[in-house]
Amino acid sequence: MSMLAALAILLASDSIPAIVPRPAHVTPQPGAFTLRAGTVIVTDRALRKVGELLRDYLFPATGLRLGVATAAPAGTPAISIRLDSTLARLGDEGYRLDVSRSRVAIRAYRAAGAFYGIETLRQLLPPAIFRQAEMAGVAWSVPGIAIEDLPRFAWRGVHLDVARHFMPKEFVKKLIDLAALHKLNRFHWHLTDDQGWRLEIKQYPRLTQVGAWRPQTIIGRPDRDSTKWRFDGQPHGGFYTQDDVREIVAYARARFVTIVPEIEMPGHSQAAIAAYPELGNRGDTLPVWMGWGVDENILNPGDATVRFYQNVLTEVMALFPGRWIHIGGDEAPKTQWKASPLAQTRIRELGLKDEDELQSWFTHRMDEFLTAHGRTLVGWDEILQGGLAPNAVVMSWRGVDGGIAAAQAGHDVVMAPGSHTYFDHYQSADTVAEPLAIGGYLPLDTVYAFEPVPPALTASEARHVLGAQGQLWTEYVPDAKRAEYMVFPRVCALAEVLWTPPEERDYGDFTRRLVTHLQRLAVLDVNYRPLAN
Ligand code: ACM
Q1: In angstroms, what is the span from residue 181 Cα to ligand 1's centroid?
Q2: What is the mean pLDDT of the chain?
Q3: Ligand 1 touching residue 438 (CB < 6 A)
Q4: Which residue from 164, 380, 474 has its CB within 8 A of the most atoms of ligand 1, so it is best to mutate?
């Protein structure tokens, strides 16, 4: 090694490149690789799509349309992307990335790992690589480096509520692409709620004909006295056709993101009841809800309603190939069930103790149904009340206690506590300078300090903690730009919590890398919140 190369390593080694999330192991190497017109992307046949995705990512800014081939003549400058059975220790999502003057080599045990290798490679190039127009005069160089990397958690998610405010298909795709850039691999799509049903269901067309639209929306936070509520007079709505969903699922799949669709039941269901009043408890005709909060209009627990929702889930399963289907289960007030002859008869006939056990009975029916179809039910932690369904995964949002209880009972858990992962909370103590939010306070450093495995769990219980995810509820998020403001950069911090080994996590180092990373997000037209305070 030359003196100069040794010096370069010495200078580089005190600050690793600005990769977010920080890789597990990074060793600077001498030299740099520069993309040129003759550079070829060489892949195994099985990785051709990953190679083509890299080509498509690199083309707009560089103007270089790199060839994708299964082999290249010796001496050709190449980015090789190969499966390597000797790298099983890095798991399905790990990879090695070696950059020298003459080549870039990405090796992984599985395709997902190779994909994360290309996401890291994009971040080793100048931030302008994310431009959508050709940039003259940029040297597209990658510093010499050896990276060996793998995630800490299997479930690294972001959630988006499209019920309170509909978000266009193009934004959903943008968020999925950004999630993948941060090596997140789950997109939890909250598709139904009191204020809107957003998924076309062929068997029940009124769910979107009626349930996807509301005449107006409450202005500001709801007063305790609903007679004081004021409304904006603006109709709001929208839904995704099944073709839209197929497009989004394919887009996510190409980026190794599994979509977890959520169909809420039995609470947060007023839009469905507005479309089909027979789903409710009182037979009255309700509007799609125009306010925010917890709504007493929940589904009735009759056999026809169970069948209706199983039919909905049949269409959901046909659209979404992933293993997990979320059935909500949170915030289902029991006032109407207490007053309902049907619900009370059902409780008596089934020998149940109370309305919580009746909700548990309802959830069990969905668990059986999904399990029989090879899928896994996910629910918010209220599904613990009245007895957890045997195959359910618990998403712990009211703190981590629900997650602890479920993991101790041998169930898989996804951590989503409001205290650390609710991106609808304020990100500054100075709320006056911020757009109106639901409340709370979740600054960037608190997200970064999140530890998804509670110390109360033993090592074997802790294995049930699949990971965590960030939530964006959209009562106070009217559009995509505001959504970006609330999600970024907090999701960058969460991505590092979920990917990087805890001993490599350092908030000062993260914020240093984040300065460069925010340049990428700016180029990607992400309306992130600046770091000022
Ligand atoms: C929730 O925030 N109601 C899950």
Answers
A1: 26
A2: 96
A3: no
A4: 380
Distance in Å, CA 13 to ligand 1 centroid: 44
Q: Which residues of 187-201 are buried (b: 16+ CB within 10 A; e: fewer)?
A: bbbbbbbbbbbbbbb
pLDDT (mean) for 38-62: 97
Nearest CA to ligand 1 atom 2: 397
Taking the CA of residue 416 as reference, the ligand 1 atom at the shortest distance is: 4
List pLDDT tens digits, range 86-101.
999 999 999 999 999 9
Residue 223 reports pLDDT greater than 80: yes
Confidence of residue 147 (pLDDT cuts 50, 70, 90): very high
Q: Report the SS3 class of residue 201.
A: coil
Name the superfamily (CATH) of residues 25-149. Chitobiase/beta-hexosaminidase domain 2-like (3.30.379.10)
Q: Is the CB of 293 under 6 A from ligand 1?
A: no
Q: How confident is the model at residue 10 (pLDDT cuts 50, 70, 90)?
A: very low
The answer, yes or no, to whether residue 6 has pLDDT greater than 60, is: no
Tokens for 197, please give them. Answer: 């049903």
Rounded to an integer, the average pLDDT of 412-437 is: 97
Delimit the domains of the chain by residue range: 25-149, 155-523
* Cβ atoms of 320 and 253 closer than 8 Å: no
- Give the span between the Cα atoms of 216 and 223, in whole angstroms: 17
Query: Quick one: pLDDT at residue 1?
Result: 47
Any idea which residues carry the catalytic annotation? 193, 268, 331
State the Cα–Cα distance between residues 164 and 171, nearest whole angstrom.
15
Whether 3 shows a pLDDT value over 90: the answer reads no
Nearest CA to ligand 1 atom 3: 330
CATH fold of 155-523 reads TIM Barrel (3.20.20)
Q: State the distance from the centre of ligand 1 to the C-alpha of 475, rounded, in angstroms.
A: 12
Task: Match 């809800």 to its residue by tokens.
Answer: 289
